[in-house]
């Protein structure tokens, strides 16, 4: 199964949008580093932040996952980023090139738990 985790960029209050814009370079660098370090596991960076409207941004990673344990590293990474940068995250799976969200976690939604997310994904 191909899963994804994105930084939640839509429907943000003005204050949170401003913080996201300020944190963007650090978030991009952290996600690029994670993708580079895990290239052997087919982790792919999702980085479409060209729009002036952050509501249109797509920032995160995708990777194959067949076992619950495969979710621990990316969920830990996004939990750390959520604490550092005050973001929430969307997690789901990709089917027929369409993203299907299954859960949200982060600074405001609450810490993500890889075991529960794996259950939502059906792993």
From TrEMBL:
Domain of life: Bacteria
Name assigned to this protein: Uncharacterized protein
